Amino acid sequence: MTTMTIAPATTGPDDASEYAAGRADAYDDSHTLTTPQLQARAAQYTEHATLPRAMGYVDRVLEIRWEDAAVTAAETELAHTDLAATWAPVRPDYLSRSSR
Hints:
Blueprint: H1 16-29, H2 35-48, H3 51-79, H4 83-86, H5 92-98
Helix pairs in contact: 1-3, 2-3
């Protein structure tokens, strides 16, 4: 008697591998394209690729936009931080000894 492993069929319209392939395409494109270029390519995917692949691509592009917005906000706050507020305060007893 042999043992048979039953594997689910993943060839339907809700194919997770197509969704993952769309996300992977967007990830690869994000290294060479700007965000507006990614958005334009996402529009092309929406019209010409399969629905799961287009959804994966668009989801990753949205995540890239959110990541860029978070990094920009953090860098902006860091750029406007008063340097005097980030330095450790000088001990008053050190000042009184040095002036003698």
